[in-house]
Amino acid sequence: MDTATQEHAKNILKHTASLVDQTSEKNFEDQKQYLTFLMQGEEYGLDILSVQEIRGWGNISPIPNAPAHVSGVINLRGTIVPVIDLRVLFQLSDSSYDENTVVIVLKVSTQRVKRIMGIVVDAVSDVFSLSPADKKSPPSVNRSVSHDFIDGLAEVKGKMVILLDSERLLHLENHG
């Protein structure tokens, strides 16, 4: 190869490499991160940007005459936070509370409303990234209460993960 051909080949390689870098960067920018957790052996995910913190199970004060899915409230640095047991809300079979049971504190803001709520889950699992193309619409089957909270489905590491919509979960859709 002469010098001009070598230089041309180098330029093509540099251009190709820059396109790959731009594509990777663009794909990374489009991705969302999800925190996954387990309930009754099934894996669920929430947009990690809505997760404020994860707390161990305990120190929950019950509220008299509350709906069955409301476990009670916790005091989070001076803020009273309602705690919802997703297993009850989703009509899953009862599960005991153990050392793996956690409360995921969610914070969602719209232009008009800011809401904080804790959700009880069996255990926290993992964090992963998804591009919009990885997320599939839930199948249209007999709609249950819990189906209202499903944002989509994704296969991650060979497992199906049910992605939840934190705004709908925190009942913000009517306020914002």
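Above is the first protein from milestone M3; the second protein from the same milestone is given next.
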Amino acid sequence: MLVILLLPFIIGCVKKEGKKELVVKLEFDEFPAKYTCDGEDISPKILIEGLSEEVKSIAIIMDDPDAPFRTFTHWLIWNIEPTNEIPENIPKEKEISEPIRARQGINDFGEIGYGGPCPPAGKPHHYHIKVYALDTMLDLEAGADKKSLEKAMEGHIIQYGEAVATYERK
């Protein structure tokens, strides 16, 4: 159902047709505790394959559509220079220069940067790490929310891919 809801957004935002989809990979299918609220709560390494030479920046949105009541946003990061690897443990600051240059937004925990999986006990939740390859650096202030990031990306997405991993608290 999430794919159906997001499809109009993705189709409406992709600027150029015929572009190869990105391949986005994590080193796991189920989040190790290290990347969750039950561990160090650091961002995982993300591998990206198939970036076009036209890409000027990358944006990432991580969310949990299985959260109670609504999709829960865990991470917003943009203006990443084109790269095949986002290293783990990105600092939780609005503007970062190491290990990559980027701006980050406010997640649904009310904090800047990555907030790892922290579902209620019960069923596993699915976490979508959505990678957008853009034709520009975004003119969007650090600390923005998801709605503002999505609006800023409209008409600038030239490639898209995502990875999904689960996490369950017992």
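Note on the second protein: The domain at 2-167 is CATH 3.90.280.10 (Phosphatidylethanolamine-binding Protein).
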